[in-house]
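User: Fold this one for me? It's Protoheme IX farnesyltransferase.
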Amino acid sequence: MSESTMKSENFNAGKGVAPAHSLAGPEDYFSLLKPRVMSLVIFTAFVGMAAAPGALNPVLAAVSLFAIAVGAGASGALNMWWDADIDAVMTRTAGRPIPMGRVPRAEAAAFGGFLSALSVALLALASNYLAAGLLAFTIFFYVVIYSMWLKRSTPQNIVIGGAAGALPPVVGWAAASGAAPLEPWVLFAIIFLWTPPHFWALALYKSGDYERAGVPMMPVAQGETSTRRQIFIYAIVLAAAGLAPFFIGMAGYLYLAVSGVLGAGFVWLSWRVFRSAPGDYGSAKKLFGFSILYLFALFAALLVESLAATYL
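Assistant: Here's what I get for Protoheme IX farnesyltransferase.
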């Protein structure tokens, strides 16, 4: 019996077999926060705060950003608690603290629940109730709507569930200004449209993982051909949406140049994925890596322009 099979049996019916005492160190609890995902949330939320009109007290801004980061980490911990059974059978996630038996599921749930309440309360105190409410909704959407419902029930899981990952710039904007007008929702739309091709590129060359775990990601549920075609379609729409901040007066020519060049690159790599032979995942891996650069560069350009407008 393989190690992954034994781990899966330990989490049969969603009931993890936890050690009597936690074997975790600080690094395990930090890992529960999904730090790589959290870093993207912090960055996009910060850009939302910087691009918003008005000025938040620097100390309160730092506390607000910390609260958003804690909320993102809480979502990650609760996601790992709920998904411990499928994490155990996926090579990409089998080394996480719960499948490895270092953190009991109950502890992860309590940890995530505590951080969720702390983050929302802290953001309400440091900024305003609108931002706190949006953060609370983001946590709820990621944990309940995506993790508990969509992820295991529909190949559109990442499409709809991507709304949770797209909300941080709206939360950041609301924290700084007390409002959520059109501009942050344009940033929301960019991340929302970016999420499917980003994750489907990964899912193409990790489809065996999702199939073993019973997760109906697009390549598993509808096949590679359909997934490749949808990646290309989303890439075209995303490249167009990426230009929107310039045309609504939210961004300048630096942003336009970055979004135009990288949008064309995204479409080109997606076309190569679409035209790749079955079983050839080289282009999908390149697209996955490029997609991270694409989103970071767009928001970095917007951040540079926002800071320049404020301080120069």
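One thing worth pointing out: The chain has a mean pLDDT of 91.
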